[in-house]
Write a structure and sequence with these properties.
alpha+beta; Rhopdopsin 7-helix transmembrane proteins; Heat Shock Protein 90; 6-stranded antiparallel beta sheet
């Protein structure tokens, strides 16, 4: 018994009729008219939400009383597109009972709505109105009348169409895959299986009404004949596949004859006699005769399992499991169990594991032939990748060592010059102030070299995005002044620092920020015209990310050529490719890497036209 749900305005769930709002009457000969049914009101029996009768020649009448709570246009539909003749009787304003027809015997283009099931528009009916449905079918008769809002029925129809399309797409892919296996291996089993998959997919398309909608929209009889013939083709090719998969030619002659006569022969007969007067009894006979097939095939399943290979054991499990999942739908068609639309959908999707199992078997058969080649190619690719990684690591290590040599050169030169001057002062007896100045230069150079050594220790952090940067509250002006203090007096004298008062701090790694700003400053001092000032401006700055700090450095030099604004931040790229200026093109790349790792950015500022200008933005703490 199905639970009834009230029709709710705006809801997308259907109302399912059941007693006391629904009752049914059997019309044994199918000769009763609406007047006869109205006169036989006492013969109706309570309806429990579903009428599942299997194959029957009788017609059945349903008396439905519309519920409360209906809002907007209402539609009545009876699912399962295979019901041949469904008629609705509804009283008009003059009290006359009007007949409207639906079902698969009616061409799709002649139906009342664009729906594959028997559907009827009720307009905006009143609660308590009584409707009568007459249902008769050459296939299994199942009736589950549902009341829908118009939008809900459209949505349900679209959902079913998408699901059917997905299923057919998967089945089409499996058919192509099986055909490819047949073309590759020339084994007939794969060709037979491709036919079975194709017939199964088309049979389900017929049961869903897709053939009647898209191929035979104006010829319902042709759609019905093709659907009935497809049942025979599905049974024939399915039995043929069972024979081949279970290898019944070897050791099971009685089971081989069973599948040939009850499956292949009857399937061929169903293909030859698709007319409705034969198709119904043949369908019932096919299902009844093939019902014991899994029990009879147990010895063949056991032998298949004993083969030991993975593909054989998968088939030995999947074949009976597939039948068990389909069993409720088969018993519903025969009439031994209530048939629900969900059983048909479950049986449809349960067929996929069998196809997948055979595909796995094909893959397993091809695996041995391809394994040696794949292993050789994999080993060669891995060796090549390792070689490239090693070469790249060595090159990067060499370049880093060259970078450090480049960076150490300046403080070493300062120390050498200071030591030479100290020796001269010792010879001539220089003033203490001069000696103190040289000692200070040496100390500054040592400090700078210490910073470079710390950078070497920080290389792991720079090369690993998962390592978080240092998180200290830093004063940008203070970092800059410490930077200037590390310069030689002549260079420091050229720098003009301007800083706004009361700037907010920022969070970052003090050592790495010191190194990044030092590279920008060294770059400006190196390329600026001799004797010209280098200006550093520190102030508040805004960015798309929010409030922050601005650090700008300007020089009076050749500037950055147009189109080179991004290139100069690449590793080992220099504007002075001729090498007239010292350096290896690493400073700007490292500076950008450090600043971006601390949520900031650095770029060329084109607003300054008298040389180069680099603008750094950092988020405020």
């Amino acid at each position: 018994m199905l639970p009834a749900r009230p029709a709710v305005a705006g809801g997308f769930e259907p109302f399912l009729f059941q007693a006391p709002q629904a009752a049914w009457l059997r019309d044994a000969g199918g000769r009763l008219g609406i007047a006869d049914v109205l006169a036989n009101g006492a013969g109706f029996l309570p309806f429990d939400g579903s009428l599942s009768l299997g194959h029957t020649d009788a017609a059945y009448w349903l008396r439905l009383t519309l519920p409360d709570g209906m809002v907007g246009e209402q539609w009545l539909d009876v699912p399962l597109p295979v019901l041949d003749d469904v008629r609705l009787y509804q009283r008009d304003a003059d009290g006359i009972w009007l007949e409207r027809r639906g079902g698969s015997a009616l061409p799709f283009d002649a139906r009342e709505g664009p729906y594959r099931s028997a559907s009827f528009s009720l307009g905006q009916p009143r609660a308590g109105d009584v409707l009568y449905l007459r249902i008769r079918s050459s296939s299994a008769l199942t009736a589950i009348p549902r009341l829908w809002r118009a939008a809900a029925l459209r949505a349900e129809n679209e959902r079913q169409t998408l699901a059917a399309g997905a299923y057919l797409g998967i089945m089409a892919g499996m058919t192509v895959f099986s055909l490819a296996g047949w073309l590759t291996t020339r084994r007939s089993l794969y060709g037979v299986f491709a036919l079975f998959v194709a017939c199964s997919a088309l049979r389900w398309a017929a049961l869903d009404g897709l053939l009647g909608e898209y191929l035979f929209a104006q010829d319902a009889r042709l759609s019905l004949l093709v659907g009935n013939a497809l049942l025979g083709a599905q049974t024939l090719t399915g039995s043929w596949c069972q024979i081949r998969l279970l290898r019944l030619q070897h050791g099971f002659p009685w089971l081989l004859r069973y599948y040939r006569w009850c499956g292949m022969a009857l399937g061929a007969l169903a293909m030859a006699l698709p007319q409705p007067e034969y198709a119904g009894p043949l369908e019932l006979l096919l299902f009844v005769l093939l019902l014991p097939a899994p029990l009879l095939s147990i010895p063949a399943y056991a032998r298949l399992w004993g083969g030991g290979s993975l593909s054989e054991r998968l088939m030995a499990v999947a074949l009976p499991l597939h039948f068990c999942v389909m069993l409720p739908a088969i018993l519903g068609v025969i009439g031994w169990l209530p048939f629900l639309p969900g059983w048909a959908y479950l049986a449809r999707w349960a067929g996929l594991p069998v196809m997948l199992t055979l595909h796995v078997g094909i893959v397993l058969q091809m695996r041995d032939a391809e394994r040696a080649r794949d292993d050789a190619e994999r080993q060669a690719a891995m060796a090549l990748q390792v070689s490239r990684q090693d070469r790249a690591a060595r090159q990067e290590q060499q370049r880093f060592l060259e970078m450090m040599t480049h960076e150490v050169r300046t403080p070493m030169a300062v120390i050498d010059a200071a030591a030479h001057n100290l020796r001269l002062l010792d010879q001539v007896g220089g003033e203490p102030a001069l000696r103190e100045s040289r000692y200070r230069s040496i100390q500054q150079a040592v400090t700078r070299m210490r910073t470079l050594m710390e950078l070497i220790e920080a290389q792991e952090w720079l090369s690993d995005d998962n390592v978080p940067p240092g998180d200290e509250r830093l004063d940008l002006e203070r970092v800059t002044r410490e930077l200037l203090a590390s310069l030689d007096p002549a260079s420091a004298a050229r720098v003009v620092l301007t800083a706004e008062a009361g700037l907010a701090p920022f969070r970052g790694d003090a050592r790495l920020m010191y190194f990044a700003l030092l590279n920008l400053l060294d770059n400006a001092l190196k390329y600026a015209d001799p004797g010209t000032p280098v200006c550093i401006d520190i102030g508040a700055g805004t960015d798309a990310a929010g409030r922050g700090l601005s650090w700008r450095i300007r020089d009076h030099g050749p500037g950055i050529p147009a189109g080179k604004e991004d290139m100069i931040f690449d590793k080992y790229r220099r504007l002075d490719e001729a090498g007239t200026k010292p350096g290896l093109g690493l400073g700007l790349a490292l500076a950008r890497r450090i600043i971006e790792r601390q949520a900031g950015h650095v770029r060329v500022d084109r607003a300054w036209r008298d040389g180069a200008c680099f603008a750094v933005w950092l988020p405020a703490a």
